[in-house]
Each structure stands twice: as C-alpha cells, then as structure tokens.
Write a structure and sequence with these properties.
Radius of gyration: 24 Å
Bound molecules: zinc ion
Helix content: 55-70%
CATH architecture of the largest domain: Orthogonal Bundle
Number of strands: 6
Order of helices and strands: HHHEHHEEHEEHEH
Strand content: 5-15%
C-alpha cells in the first residue's frame, strides 16, 4: 500500500527522469540500474564484455540480465565467435519494455486508488474527537466504541471529503499520464 502510494506520487512528480529508474527498481530490483544505464548507452554488447565493463563476474551480470529479460527490458541474441567457434550471448536495451512496464504499473496503481476511493466513499468510519484512529463499525463495536489510543468515546464520522478529493485528483492524474 505505502509503496504503491509512493509510486503513484513518484509517477506524478518526476514523470521525466527518475521515473524510469524508479519503475525498474520496483519491479526488477535496484541492483540492475548501473547495468541498465550502460546498456541504454550502447547498441548490443556481449555478456563477457558487459561483465568487464561492470567489473563484475559473468554470473552476476547474467542474473541481472535474465531478470531484466523477464520484463522485456532487454533482448538477447546468440552469436558465434569466429575466433574460437564458441557461442556467446549479446544483449541490448529494449525501450518498449519500459513502456509496457509503465502501463502495467499504472494500471495496478489505478486499481488500488479506485479501491481506496470506493472504500472511502462507502464505508462508515468511527473516531474520537481527537481523531486518533479511524475504525470501521465492526472494529469500533468490538471495543465498545472506546478509542484504542485515548479511551474516549468514538462517534460516527462523516465521509472525509478532503481524502476523497485527493484520491480523485490522483486517479485523474494517473489516467492522464497512462494511456
Ligand atoms: Zn482517541
């Protein structure tokens, strides 16, 4: 929930730069970022050369490449090395993978936000005067409408219009950025 919320905020705030790396970190892992940066600047590179560039062992680089491949961020091609006859894998960056990733993550965030909005608009909440915590009827009932924080009596709360507005704005912004 929190991560999604953070992601949505990120999506809307720095749509330009950090967004791409943020999406990749969220779905593939932040350890692949240096490798992805290198790949984006090059055409195709053999995995041996990549390991050299990254100053890492081939298995580490391979593992990162496979994980990116699962999200279609990179493509690979097997080529024969003429000098020794061995087959070597070459890798390249695949921009359309990022677009797909973005679309998928946006849909996920949108679904979460819409669920929240639905809950916010249709649920009856209870809270004390100080608003320590908001509870649904069942939960408030089970503790006899005594605030779990301060012990004061909890009352029925009107729908939180501000919260609903914020959610509606976030949903609209996300719909506008995602196709
Ligand atoms: Zn309270």
């Amino acid at each position: 929930m929190t991560r999604l919320k953070l992601m949505v905020t990120k999506l809307m705030l720095d749509f330009d730069n950090g967004i791409v790396e943020h999406m990749v970190s969220e779905s593939v892992g932040s350890d692949v970022l240096p490798l992805l940066r290198k790949l984006k600047r090059k055409k195709e590179v053999s995995e041996l050369e990549l390991a050299e560039i990254m100053e890492a062992d081939v298995n580490t680089v391979r593992n990162q490449l496979y994980r990116m491949h699962q999200h279609n961020l990179v493509f690979s091609e097997r080529r024969r090395d003429e000098s020794n006859g061995w087959y070597v894998y070459w890798w390249g960056f695949q921009p359309k993978g990022l677009q797909n990733l973005f679309t998928r993550l946006s849909k996920k965030s949108l679904a979460e936000l819409e669920k929240k909005l639905q809950r916010e608009s249709s649920t009856t909440f209870y809270a004390c005067e100080k608003n320590c915590a908001r509870l649904e009827f069942e939960d408030a009932y089970s503790i006899e409408f005594r605030c779990p924080e301060c012990g004061e009596l909890m009352h029925l709360r009107e729908a939180d219009k501000d919260r609903i507005q914020v959610l509606k704005r976030q949903i609209a912004a996300l719909k506008a950025t995602a196709r």
